[in-house]
């Protein structure tokens, strides 16, 4: 059973290395310039007192801008965010309601609450608790006659998290009552996902099959556990995740949702809103349950899906990404519900919700790398990435410098500095995919005993200059798929066959640029796994991470494998059809093919058949 964790204060973790460079690209790209190029977040926004957009887009944008500003310590971004914060705080009415008077929907205010909580955590703004208390009193008074509906009735856990934040700081019997009322009016996500989940593509709209709704609804077990302390609710979350994987899981580890749940085929998409909301749910669940496999899943999402959702310089984004994506063009595909341009890279392909909402992904991931143990007992790793943590534990100032290129290398180095010798525990997450972890403490081998929760605890009196070196060897692993196809992973990275990309600018591009991406090479390869030791013994090669971390021209880790083309595997409705049954007997020659991480290949094949290559004389090619 895991240990409940607590968040570190926003701004105590500062990204370094490749992660900082990625966040800086976001700051100079779509997030930092959105107000200039998109009217919905411009000066006419109703959230700023104007006559423009008055629903979710302003709060969504802030929900990423605020953490981005604070994890980078970027004064320009902080100034942008403060303008919105002041407008929201100044706009509260005498009865406690706030936000645009032209839209009384509960839902967008739930997002605004998350923004205010993050702002208060980072700055200590003492206006926020009173603001929240007045609004929560308003909710208690009005929810009986004006209950949650539409989006709010499926996303009320977001509201509950803000109520719990206030209750931890200012206990009041009204706040547990409000939490109970909100959850009573919310969908029964655990019941649906474990008992009534659809087993194929959704064909009509239903809030229960809407991908981002599902990603948010998955945090219901965690939110309930935060209220009642019942750690057994982790079994509910695991059951929900298992059902989604059984019926909608894809080779890359996420569940499909090209607007609606879409089954298991690799040509079905995943919405960017769904990616960032699922990542946030995993981070909040990590706090509630302290289970290491939640960090495993979060790394899988961030290092693969989140990286792939934008172009490498974060000037544009996709609405939908496909596990196997052999073109990103305007075309009619087998989406459950989307327009033909949904997977181009642009300003606002399809609905604008993803443009407003994608900003939270990287900053909240960076802000969740470390978590606190209860009762000031120490610190826990949620996910590994280069960063610096500065906080207080046991009355001492603690700094931990995490030096690594993980996930592109397998070694994490931690330099611990304390203002005075202090005893506390460091909980190091050992991923479930790692069979032989190794730990050095001050250069000497240290025992590493991993519990059932995926953590190894190191408790000692820490002194200035202490160091830890954790090695997490990454073996190549295969993921079994339908029709005997396979996916490939290396540690937390999904490895794919890349397709050579041609980036074709669209006429009259909006924003910072809009592109179709067309294939410039064959894509229909099957993996040749017979002979020469098979996939698990293919050669792994590593290189430094470039200045642009997910640059397809400078890939820091590759697998050198073997493959052959499968001529019968062709396009269907603008996408790669499902792979043929494996092994595919082919006369195509076996050639060397390099696999790269998913996040580096905007065109890629992630689910591949296997091949049995036969020479002209009828003998199998070894």
Quick summary of this structure?
The protein is α+β, with helices and mostly antiparallel strands and 622 residues long. Among the domains are: 38-186, no CATH class; 383-471, Immunoglobulin-like (Sandwich); 476-613, no CATH class.
N- and C-termini, Cα separation: 47 Å
Strand content: 15-25%
- Number of E strands: 28
| Helicity range | 25-40%
Instruction: List the total number of helices.
Output: 16
Q: Could you name the ranges where pLDDT drops below 50 across 5 or more consecutive residues? A: none
- Secondary-structure content class: alpha+beta
Shape type: globular
Assembly state (oligomeric): single chain
Average pLDDT figure: 97
Rg on CA atoms, Å? 24 Å
Largest sheet geometry: 8 strands, antiparallel
